Structure formats: structure tokens, C-alpha cells
Amino acid sequence: MGHDPTAHTPNREDASMAGARRHGGRLLTALALAALLALVTLSGVALAGPPHPALPAIPRSLCASDPGKCVSVTPGYGMTGTQLTLKGTSLTPGARIVIGYSATDCAGTIITITGATGTVGADGTITIVFAWPSTAPGKYAICATDSGTGTTLESPGGFQVLSPSLTVSSPVASGGAVQVSGKDFFPSTKSGGQVEVLYSADGSNGCANSVATAAVADDGTFTATFNAPAVTVETKLAVVAVEPQKSCGATPNLQATATLDVQAQVAQLNPTITVSGPVDAGKQVTVTGTQFSSSDGQVQILYGGSDGCQTAAATATVNNDGSFSATFNAPSPDNDTTLTVKAVQPSGACAQPKFSAQATLLVHGKVLPPSPTPAPPTLVFCVIGLLFLLLLLALLLFFLRRRKKDEPVTIQELDRIVVNAQGTSAGGAAGQMTVERDIYAVDAKGRQQLIGQSRATAEEVYTDEEEIVDDTRLPRFGPGGDGR
Predict the structure, then answer these.
(1) 356 pLDDT band (50/70/90 cuts)?
(2) Is residue 160 pLDDT above 60, yes or no?
(3) Buried-exposed string 416-453: b where 16+ CB fall within 10 A, e elsewhere
(4) Please, what is the end-to-end C-alpha distance for the chain in angstroms?
(5) What was the pLDDT predicted at 41?
(6) For the chain, which residues make up each domain, given as ranges?
């Protein structure tokens, strides 16, 4: 039997046709799936509305060559705490951006700013708001880093850190002009280079009263003037300068504050003090004062020296009515001492006080110990005392008697002649004649006192009694004298 070719050929055709049928089935399946997918897509488009236009694709190489078209930070200057805003475009959607700074550039060391992070949106944009950390004044580069790829973009211009300061003319009188000056206030294109000056009560943010504006010079300085408020008591105010204007209490780029002391109009005072005295050594002294200033602090009490400023003794608080009271212990001098006591305001200004008054204080010297009790008198002292009393009595009698003798008296004389006959002679009678004289002292009351007598005798012959009386040969004598 030989091979039958007719029998083999039909079998090959059947195999070829079967393969074609399988290939056609797969194609139909693919076309059916494609049609189904297109139908679903069209259905989704119909539900979502018209399609958005596609975003232009900016190659990331553009950000690398010109970062300013991808990231920027405003403002370009400020101080510690200034609020900055970073904006980014054409960035990788979903990328995590971390912001840092460098003292040189972003190719150097980068210090991450805490909390300054964000995620790029699906449209390739991002906005991050953060506060500038505490750094020294100077220029810094701001760096935005893709934490996934490590790619870093540097914001053009960076950030300049300033340290603004403010000074005011203080103190000023109530309603007086206040001079304000500032430095390190950099001009701002956003605010037109204008600084706003405000004030409010001390301890506040200073934003209550806007009183002046001033242009900032190219060197960052400015000056302004305003009038302090009228006050009846000394008042402290917080003065603030901010840039830009209208940013006080919000997020100014630059801000500086100063304290202003506004003094009330000084009343005409006439301080006086009184001290309790005189006092013994070491005893307490009370000082009271009136018409001192209740707004100039405590009163200081001093004493000693020509100006009363030698020794600080006490301090006292002045009441609202200008009065005060204080005490201190007096010194202990050996002898009685007069001190100058002085009260001054403010404390520590005794040489040139704003208010002062003084008074004098007598301080008795130290008390000596009691003298010992004397011993009872002895016999000798008794005798001496008795003799002394007798002497006094004798002197008294002497002066009394002397006074009695010194009383005015007159002297009276009384003569008596006695003739004793002894015989007769041719010429007449012979006899002895005696003349007796009594002398009396008579006082003013007529009382007599015999104070002397005298007698004289002679023997002659007389013819009669008259001859005897007239005889010049008779002895003559004066008061109290004897003629013989």
C-alpha cells in the first residue's frame, strides 16, 4: 500500500483555518474592550463637565537656570520675628519643600527654619508663611529644598536682617514736644519708605494713638515730632515706630519701641518739717513733714553737719496730700548738741534736692552716773559748823550795833561851879573853886546818855561871887577834857 496524499492535505487546511479563527477571536475581544473603555471614558467626561486645558509643561531645568521663576520670598528685609512668605511655581507636584537659610549661599551650609515646610500642589505651586528666626543682623540666602530629590532652589535677593532702634526726648512736660529718631529702618517699596509713630500706655503694644509719619532716609534713619498728652500726674508711655504704616499690632517688617516719661506740671510746694525735741541721747525722734511731692518718690531724713547731710537716718513714703512721718534714734553725744535735721526729695539728693526742708534738734548729752551718798557729818564738821554760825551771829550784832551808833545824836554840856570857902583876907574871901562839867549825848528822840565828865579847881581870893564867875583865870577846857 502506498501513501495517499489526498488524505493528508485536508488535515493541514483544517489546522490553518483553526488558527485564523483563534486570531480573529482575540482581535474581536480587544476591539470590544477598547470600545468599552472608550464608552466609560466618554461617560466620565460627560459627568465631570468640559475638560480643563492642559498646563504648560515647564522643564525643571528652567528652575535650575532661573530660580526666580520658580521660588520667591517677600519681604526682602526685616528683623527677628518678621513674617515672610515663600511662593513657588512650576515645581514637582507632591514634592515636600523645606526652607532654610545660609550666611553665604545655598551651596554652603543650610540651617533649617523650624516649621517652614510645605507640600507642592498638583498644579506645581506652593505657599509657605514663616517667621524669621533669631539671627544677627546681616544678609542671608533663603533656600527651598525638595526633600525627596535633594534639589535646592535659592530665592533671589535673599533676606536682610536689621536691628531697628528708637529714641525719644524724655522726660517732657505735660503737653510738651517729643523728638523721635530711629535708625536701621530700611526703605520699603511697599510702604513708600514711610515709618508710622504711635504711642499708648506703658506696658501695652503702643498702637493706640497714631501721632506722626516720617520718610526713611537711604541710610535707614528718620526723625519725627509730636506733642505729649496733657497729664495731671507723671505718666509713662510706650512709643513705637513701625514700617510699613498701618502694620502696628499685626506683622510689621520693622518695629522699635521706647519709653516716654511725661511729667505733670510742677505745683508750687513749700515743704516744712517739725521734729520732736529736745530729746535725751539715743532716744527716738519723730519727724513730720507737709507739702512734699507725692509723685517724686520717698523722702529721705538726714542729720548732722552744716548742711544736715552727714548721716542718713530714715526714709518715708509721702502721702497723697504731701505729708509724711518718720522716726529715728538720736545720736549719743557726751554734751548737749544741736543738730540740723533735713528732709529731701528724691532720696540720695541731699546736696541738690528737688524739694527739701530742715529743722534743728537739741540732743542732751549722756547722763552721768549718780554721785555717791555723802557720809554723815563728824564731830569736827559739827564744831566747824557751830563756829561758823557764831561768826555769822557776831557779824550780825556788829552791824546792828554799828547801825545804832551811826544814828544821829547831839552833844550837850552842863557846867557846875562849886566854891568852898576856906578863910578871909583883907581883900575879900579866900576859898577853893571847883568847876565840874557833865557831857551828854542826846539822840533824835531826846534821850540823854552821860558820855563824860571833867573837873577843874583853883584857890583864889574873891570879893564876891560874880568876881569868881567872871574870873578869866579860871581853868578852861573843852568837852570831855581836863583843864589841869
Answers:
(1) very high
(2) yes
(3) eeebeeeeeeeeebebebebebebbeeeeeeeeeeeee
(4) 255
(5) 43
(6) 61-161, 165-263, 272-363, 409-470
